[in-house]
Structure formats: C-alpha cells, structure tokens
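Chapter review: from sequence to fold.
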Amino acid sequence: MNLEGITINLLTTELQKRLLGGKIYKVFMPNKSCLLLLIKTESTTLALTADFAGGSPYLYLPEKTPERPDTPPAFCMLLRKHLEEGRITKIEQSGLDRVIAMEISSIGSARQIITKQLVFELTGKNANIIFTADGIILDSLKHVNKAQSSYRQILPGLPYIAPPPQNGLNILTSAPADIVSTAQALPLAPAKALIAATTGIGQYTAAQLLKIASIDAGSSINDSNAPQLANAIADLQQNISEAKAGNALVYAVITRTNSVKTVLPFKPVQLAEGESVKEFASLNSAINFAQSLAPVLLPEQELLAKTVTAETEKLVKKAAVLREELAAAEDAEQQRIIADTLMANLYRIPKGSSNITVENIYDGTPLVIALAPDLTANENAQKYYKRYNKLKRAQTEIKEQLKLTEEAVEYLGSIDVALKLVQSRAEVAEIKTELAAAGFITIKNTKNKMPQAKSTPTVVKLSEDTTLYIGKNNKQNDYVTFSIGSGNDLWFHTKNIPGSHIILKTTLPQPEEADINTAASIAAYFSKARGGSNTPVDCTLRKFVKKPSGAKPGFVIYTNQTTHYVTPDEDEIKKLLK
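The token string follows.
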C-alpha cells in the first residue's frame, strides 16, 4: 500500500488528536521490523504500531495488539531506556513529505526536561524509524552506510539528515489557480506537470484530478481546461479539510489480488480493471483493514515466494561474513613486506629475539616485527612468507565465493520480480523448474505427470507498425531477447534493477519517440522498481546484447546503451495491456 503525502497529512492529524499528551509506558518490537508503543492517555490506553516488515510501511493504532516477544532486540532496549515514562509532546509531518516526527519529553536526573525524537520515514522500501536527540542519531531500525547512500548515512552518532524534500506548491494550502498556472507552464505531460508543480500528491491523485477535469494524459493543461482542474483541486482541498475534522469518509482502493493499493481522502472517479473501493470513517480504520487482508495468490506462488525470500536472506548473511573474512585476509601484503624485510636483515637479528625494529625496505619507515624466539631469523621470515601465501590463497577463494554469492542474490531478485508478474499456472511452473535447475529447490520426479503448457510473453500492439514483447520471467526474457528480437530491434531493461526484458519491433525506418518512451515505461513497470519515480531504464540495439557462456537464465551483458528516466503511468499501462 502506497500512501501519498496528503494521506500522511490526514494520518498526522488523527495521531495528534489521539496521542498528544499521552505517556509511553511500554515499548515492544513484535519482530525485527515492527515497533509497538503502548500509550496511556487521559481516557484510555492505546497501541501505536509502526510495521515496516513488508514493502509498504504502516503507522497506525491497531485494533488487536500484536504479540510481544520474550527477547527484545537492541533497538527496542535502547528505546525502552529513553522513552518509557516519556510524554508525547509533538507530532508533526515534514511539509507534505512522507515523514512524521514524534517528540517525546521526559524529566532528566537534574529535573530538567529532555526531549528526543522518533522519526517515522514512510517512504516505501526505504522506510525507516530513526531515534534522535538534538539532531544526532542515537540509533535506527535500519542502518544506511555510505555504500548504500551517498546522500545521507543513517548511523549512530551522525547528524540526522532528512530525506530530500519535495519542491513545489503545497497542494493543500496554495491557491488552486496558482497550482494550475504553475503546472501549465511546465513542458511536461499533464500528470507529470501537476506532480512537479506541487508537493503531497503522486501518480494516483494526479490521474484522478485530471480525470475529473476531463484532461487526457496525452493532451496538455491549457486555458480552456485550466478552470476545471482548479475546481478539482479546490474540491480536493475541501475534502481533506472535512476529513481532518472527522466529517468526511476516506476510501481504500482494493486490487483484484485482495490487497489495498492506496487510501485516499476523496472518492476515486476511475478504477483499473478488477479494482473496487471501500469506504471508512477514519484513515486508521482503513489501515487496519489493509493489514487484515490476505492477498490472493496462485497455489504455488506464495510458497515459491517464501523460498526465494528465505534463500535471499541466507545469501545476504553469507555475503556479509565473506566480506569480513576478505577484510581480514587483506593483511597478506603486509606479511610479505615483513618477510622481505626480515630476509634483508638476517645478519642483524640476534638469536632468541622476540621482536626487532628495522627499516622497511620499501618505504624506509621503522617497522616493528614480532619474532618467535625459538626460531632462527630465516625461519621467522619463512613463517611470514607461509602466512602471506595462505592469506593470498584465501583472498582468491573468498573473492570467488563472494562473487558467486552476490550473483545468486541478484538472480533471486529476478525470480522475486517474476513471481510478482505471473498471470498463469504455466508461468509459476516455469519459475519452479528454473529454481530447481539452479539448485534452490527439489522437484519430485512423478511418473505419468501431465505436461505443463508453455507460457508466452506478453505482446502489446502499439500501432500497425510497432509491437512490444514483454518477458515476465527469465525463460521468457531469454526467448524475447534472443528468439523474438533481431539485430536492430530496440531492447529495454531497468538499469541495475531486476525486471523484464522488452523488445520493441517496428517496420518504420526509425521507432517513434513516443513508442520508445512507452517501452521504457513498461520496462520500469515490469520491474522491482514498480511504483517508483524517475526509474533508470537502459535501451540499446538487440545486437549489442550478449549472453555469456554458462550464464543463468535471464542474465545478459550489453553495451552502447542510453539511459531513460521514467515514471510509469499505471493506468495508461494497464490500458495498453488490455
């Protein structure tokens, strides 16, 4: 479930009404990705749950309190130490970003008031809970180092840096006419222009506002339709104002797979195929409902997804251990330097010495060398050479193991995406067979088993001249790229992100620019980055795509690519896929 900034604004108001002034009397973590605060208010006792276990973060007051484990994690113990008996003195949203900060004040040992912050970043897969004091991070649910983010690191002791803020007019407080005129001046498609001109809304709300104003996605915002769009924005502002006062309903959009896609402070006027809407008196009730739903999956799809998740977690842990072992083995060069220096100074080392300080023969700096007193100088040197050779062999072996482990994690990432894209039992069967061939599962060899029907790639006819072919699993990806695709066809794939292979075929001398943009958007949509914005998609000629000998299904290398940054319009893509 993806909540936009305007919905987070409603959530903030609801939490303010129910939690401000309350005292935190217990802190729990039901699992490693879920925080539970038990809060006493003047009239009742409430539980606030921040559940970041899935791809969608939830911050809500649960109707049923989660179970509490016997052994709390270290993050939980830290929060207990600092937050229990503290009062919630402030809850505020960062502009219209998907960030809520909660201030908790307590009395210090010197009878002074000490205030700390819990920052809930409800930002999709990067969601996090960060505990700060005076702008310094004390700890967080997830640590983020420099290798994971060059913009900001989330580690204890570092200053807290907020996520990059949105730029634009506040969709709730700015004059509708000003918003429309700003969007109209941007050289973008209507939905992108509206999102770029404002803060607080995403693709879904932008598409609904344009639908209300009768503005097509392929047209533009102009003087004739600008008044209708301004009226739609004014109605949105009124709806949210009434919802914050408790005088309006909120609406959950439910997908055909029985999961909540989003919650809106207005009734949507356009739904995708298979979607439905359910009304709720409050946002908290809608989130509770979303948490209670069990997604509908094909029979074996869920089991395979759990297997992929478990295997990925094991491999990630293995990679971390291998990196530690590699760091330890990187001392090999120093052992060689010591050995060479000893050999050059054999005549200067008295027998029975336990250490000696000599000049490093490579850089002239003093080098303190530990020696075994019971060995001769030459034997000590040979001992260091032996250690050097052992560490060098270890480096080679560990690097190879780490490379294979990282490749396996990347491969399972492609399987995970394929499982989310399946549309038939045949596609599930193909993925299962592929996992068995890769050694991640075993399949019983049953006699007289009916042969499985072959799955086929998705074909989208863009025009009489142009067709798109979409692979939805690794087997289909290979087929699309190397059987359907030919030399000068365009090939698309998300950059460094697991996803589908896309082939764009046309009989025209050159593909239309609009068709290239559509292909890039579909590549982003059929990838792990679905739902994101500014997703990088690489495009190259099919003749520049190669499959290395012995590579796993779906794995290719390519050159001569250009990179497109796209934000797919889900409704438009679903129309195409029909």
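Two observations follow directly from the output. Residues 43 and 565 are 51 Å apart (CA to CA). The radius of gyration is 29 Å.
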